[in-house]
Design a protein that fits this description.
Radius of gyration of chain C: 18 Å
Structural class of chain C: mainly alpha
CATH architecture of chain C: Orthogonal Bundle
Oligomer: heterotrimer
Structural class of chain B: mainly alpha
Strand content of chain B: under 5%
Largest interface: A-C, 102 and 80 residues
Distance between the termini of chain C: 55 Å
CATH topology of chain C: Helix Hairpins
Radius of gyration of chain B: 29 Å
Number of domains of chain C: 1
Chains: A mainly alpha (207), B mainly alpha (641), C mainly alpha (106)
Largest sheet of chain C: none
Helix content of chain B: over 70%
Number of strands of chain C: 0
Order of helices and strands of chain B: HHHEEHHHHHHHHHHHHHHHHHHHHHHHH
Number of domains of chain B: 2
Number of helices of chain B: 27
Strand order of the largest sheet of chain B: 1-2
Order of helices and strands of chain C: HHH
CATH class of chain C: Mainly Alpha
Number of strands of chain B: 2
Chain lengths: 207, 641, 106
């Protein structure tokens, strides 16, 4: 019980951090905190293997990927969004949604299962049980996911391939990028760089 | 695979299949003549296997059954894929692979330079594989698999030069007419299963004895099997595909449409011999169809001017002879004639191929003549083939044809069904055979050359890779008849060999002097025919023909005695009418309707397009709003499982 | 004993927060993060119900966790591809402002 409350609080705080924090790095780390809290919740739900996977894959790989990209692209702080109307509409919808979901959960009370029975049936959701089901009942899903992963891999590699410029519009971009790089080099040489940040910052905003 | 050499013959079709796969998959990368060598090698290997099996078969009673794998393990019918290697199937295998090897080697030279070289040999190997399965099958369905397989290969090879429209048309015609026969085969199989409860040939043949002589069930099955045989072996009224099938390369005509595939019908009836022996009505149908076909085809052959079409009608006629033989109950005689016919008809086709090749593509006999001077080897072997088919004594055709005539004369099975009339018809057909074949030979090889200018320049004897098979087949045409010498006076090997594998039917043989008389009559018929041909074409220089040949009757005969016109009016025309009606419906009604729905959809789409602003977050907002509405609905209205 | 509804309610709250994040944030990366949050909340709900149904048998219980397993894999693939797209877009425009990417229309 206590575990649940503490972890629930951490998760919600982390979630709020994701959506409210200015700096992308802070938001990403906040999400990591949320993920770890949810992992603990998984443990309380007799899903030990999944908890481990959550930490290793989700927090350990996916979030790391996010951090790489954030740092690579040097995504910086965001300005205020332009349309307050949109923001208030979003908040309102969020509140309604949360209320609706909580109500939905509370209106459908379930008989809490016998912990001992569950512990024995699930055996902590260990790898053996999951494997038994994954390679048996859900074999098709498993195969499809494999195909999906392969496709994702190939797609991701193909997307970031830097081929020869196809000509036309993008050549302008390439020269612009070159120009900014040249600027950065000049600024570098002149020792005028501020805060280690190249001119081609994000949130260049509207065109 | 047991240690019994006979069972090794079961490998033969797989060898041919392997050759087909190699040539089919990799043929484009192989240079000439490699595909041909590969193909000939596998068929030669199959021949060796068959020969070994044949020689080691010995004095067994029953054949060797080689079980391969389960086919249809269905309740009540546990069908397996297996081969029945007995005297009949081994003999057929020898014919198929022996003549097949010769023709494969011949094709190496004949198809030289053709762009579809590998494709040709792949299809030819596939044919050998299918034909072997056909003659080795132990059950009717497996036989049918081989039956269909040879039909497919025939289609592929007739339409081999598919760019000229008449070739695929001929292939289609062959396949469709064959299909009619196949329908008969299928219904026959249904009846067989219903009557006997099994589809294994050996079991059916054994069970036949439990039925009354002339039982209706047996007759029905027999007639249907004859329908199937008529389709595959080009008998009346399903013979119309064979003359057009000459559109294929000549070696194909030799192998498929003379020596092997077309004899599948005869084989089918010989295989089911016990059934036909128990049913005189079915046998009568077989024999009469055969006799009428023999006569009609022989008459039509006279009016043909294409070197191969003459031989095509001759094949139809000779097949008719074989069917008469199995119809009167002399099953071994029918297979014997298959054997001799394979040799001399294969020879004749290959010789005509040599002529066509030597003249650069000329096929009209009116533009040939005197080729003996230019192509002595071809002419010599062709002469042997002609004499053999005419039934000149001491050559192969004489022995088999005479055996047919004798069996027809002495038949007890069809004694009440006009056996003697059949004999007369056959005798007349034999005379005609000698006559039109004499005509063929004389017009092509003798007399004054009537060649066109280009042909005269390029005429040459064919290369050795083509003339050696000719020589081999010529030798075979002389010698192979000696396995079946008339049994009343000479040792006959083939009859006792085939008897255990077919059926024994009583014959009422005439006294010795009458048998010799009959032989004399047959020889006389051949002599009369040849003399007639000599007189018309050499002595009179063809004058009677030019006077008569341009008349309406000749034209009627040249056009296949009206069968093609009949089918065109009765079947093909109406079918084309229905199909063009449907095409009209499809185009005007369906396509217009679809086009209308397309324009409507486009109009609707443009309407909806107004909603797309391009801003992703607006879209997300809309999605979220929709989701929230759903949540509210679920919570408020309540959805319970 | 923690009632099942509590877990589900928590999951719902996280989901809504994530949804608000998707709508409110301007940079594509941040939107992506919010989507991951939503996915995670769904995972939590699934595991909760897996626990709930475990009484009815092993298969009923473990199926929920297996589904989470699969969703995790899908999320991983999606992140890889999504970030790849992001990088490609960034190379092209030097910006990840989604309002600037107003081209998903005719």
């Amino acid at each position: 019980m206590v575990t649940f409350v503490i972890m629930a609080v951490f998760s919600v705080v982390g979630a709020l951090g994701v959506i409210l924090l200015r700096q992308p790095i802070h938001a990403a780390l906040s999400l990591v905190g949320t993920l770890l809290s949810v992992a603990v919740l998984f443990v309380t739900l007799q899903a030990h293997f999944l908890a481990a996977i959550q930490v290793i894959v989700y927090a350990g790989a996916i979030m790391v990927l996010f951090l790489f990209v954030i740092m690579l692209l040097n995504i910086e702080e965001q300005r205020r969004p332009v349309m307050p109307a949109l923001r208030w509409a979003a908040y309102a919808l969020g509140l309604v949604a949360a209320a609706g979901l909580i109500a939905g959960a509370l209106l459908d009370p379930r008989q809490a299962p016998d912990a001992a029975v569950v512990r024995e049936t699930l055996q902590g959701g260990n790898a053996e049980l999951i494997a038994e089901v994954l390679f048996g009942e859900f074999m098709l899903a498993f195969q499809l996911v494999s195909v999906l992963l392969l496709t994702g891999l190939v797609g991701a590699v193909a997307l970031v391939q830097r081929g020869p410029p196809p000509g036309g519009a993008t050549r302008a971009d390439a020269t612009r990028a070159d120009a900014t790089r040249a600027d950065a080099a000049r600024a570098d040489a002149a020792g005028q760089r501020s805060g280690g940040r190249p001119p081609d910052a994000l949130e260049a905003g509207g065109r | 695979m047991t240690g019994d050499p006979v069972s090794w013959a079961a490998l033969a079709p797989f060898l041919a299949l392997f050759g087909a796969l190699v040539n089919g998959l990799f043929g484009a990368r192989l240079r000439e003549p490699l595909p041909g060598i590969v193909a000939s090698a596998v068929v030669a290997a199959a021949f060796v296997l068959s020969l070994v099996a044949f020689l080691t078969f010995g004095e067994r009673d029953a054949g060797v059954h080689v079980l391969l794998w389960d086919f249809m393990p269905v309740a009540g019918l546990d069908l397996v894929v297996g081969f029945q290697l007995d005297q009949l199937s081994l003999l057929m295998m020898l014919i198929v692979t022996g003549v097949g090897t010769a023709i494969h080697v011949y094709s190496i030279g004949y198809m030289h330079g053709d762009e579809g070289y590998a494709r040709y040999f792949a299809a030819l190997n596939l044919f050998i594989a299918a034909m072997l399965v056909l003659v080795m099958a132990d059950s009717f369905p497996l036989l049918f698999v081989g039956w269909e397989g040879v039909g497919v290969c025939s289609f592929l090879l007739i339409g081999f030069w598919y760019r000229q429209k008449q070739n695929p048309d001929a292939a289609r015609k062959a396949f469709i007419v064959n299909r009619i026969g196949d329908a008969g085969f299928l219904v026959a199989m249904f009846l067989i299963y219903r009557t006997f409860g099994t589809l294994t040939i050996a079991e059916v043949n054994e069970a036949v004895g439990g039925f009354a002589f002339g039982a209706a069930a047996l007759t029905a099955i027999g007639v249907l099997l004859m329908v199937a045989a008529a389709g595959k072996s080009a008998q009346l009224p399903l013979h119309v595909w064979l003359p057009d099938a000459m559109a294929g390369p000549t070696p194909v005509s030799a192998l498929i449409h003379a020596a092997t595939m077309v004899t599948a019908g005869v084989y089918l009836i010989a295989r089911s011999a016990p059934l036909f022996a128990q049913s005189p009505d079915a046998s009568a149908v077989v024999a009469w169809v055969g006799a009428l076909t023999a006569l009609l085809a022989a008459a039509v052959a006279f009016a043909q001017t294409d070197i191969k079409r003459i031989l095509a009608y001759s094949t139809i006629s000779q097949l008719g002879f074989m069917f008469v033989a199995v119809g009167v109950g002399a099953y071994w005689v029918g297979i014997f004639h298959v054997l001799t016919h394979a040799c001399f008809k294969g020879l004749l086709f290959l010789a005509s191929g040599s002529v066509i090749h030597g003249l650069g593509g000329e096929q009209d006999v009116r533009r040939m003549g005197g080729l003996r001077r230019f192509m002595p080897l071809t002419a010599g072997t062709a002469l042997i083939g002609t004499l053999a088919i005419a039934g000149v004594p001491l050559l192969a055709g004489f022995f088999s044809k005479d055996a047919i005539l004798l069996a027809t004369f002495s038949s007890t099975l069809l004694a009440d069904h006009g056996a003697l009339v059949l004999y007369a018809l056959l005798l007349f057909s034999a005379t005609l055979t000698a006559a039109y074949m004499g005509r063929w030979y004389l017009l092509v090889f003798e007399g004054e050359p009537r060649l066109s200018a280009e042909a005269r320049e390029r005429v040459h004897e064919s290369p050795r890779v083509m003339t050696v098979p000719l020589a081999l087949l010529a030798v075979a045409s002389v010698l192979v008849g000696y396995v079946g010498l008339p049994s009343f006076a000479f040792p006959n090997w083939i009859e006792p060999w085939l008897l255990p594998a077919t059926a024994t039917v009583p014959f009422d043989y005439p006294p010795l002097w009458a048998e010799w008389l009959l032989i004399g009559v047959a020889v006389l018929a051949a002599a009369v025919g040849l003399a007639l041909a000599w007189w018309v074409y050499m002595v009179q220089r063809g004058v009677p023909v030019t006077r008569v040949g341009s008349g309406a009757f000749a034209g009627f005969l040249r056009a296949g005695a009206g069968f093609d016109t009949l089918y065109q009016r009765a079947a093909v025309g109406p079918a084309e009418g229905v199909s063009s009606g449907l095409a009209l419906l499809d185009r005007d009604v369906l396509d217009r309707g679809l086009a209308a729905s397309v324009t409507t959809t486009g109009w609707l789409a443009r309407l909806v397009m107004l909603w797309q602003s391009g801003y992703v977050r607006n879209y997300a907002l809309a999605m979220m709003a929709g989701a929230v509405i759903l949540i509210l609905v679920v919570v408020l209205v309540g959805v319970r499982a | 004993m923690v009632p099942t509804e509590a877990y589900v309610a928590l999951s719902g709250v996280m989901f809504s927060i994530g949804a608000v994040g998707v709508l409110t944030r301007r940079s594509a990366i941040m939107i992506f993060l919010s989507v991951e949050l939503m996915l995670n909340s769904a995972n939590l709900a699934l595991v909760t119900y897996a626990y709930q149904w475990a009484e009815a048998g092993m298969l009923a219980g473990i199926s929920g966790q297996t589904a989470v397993f699969i969703i995790l894999s899908v999320a991983a693939a999606e992140v890889a591809v999504g970030l790849g797209i992001l990088v490609a877009i960034f190379r092209n425009r030097a910006s990840t402002d989604v309002d600037a990417l107003a081209e998903v229309r005719l």
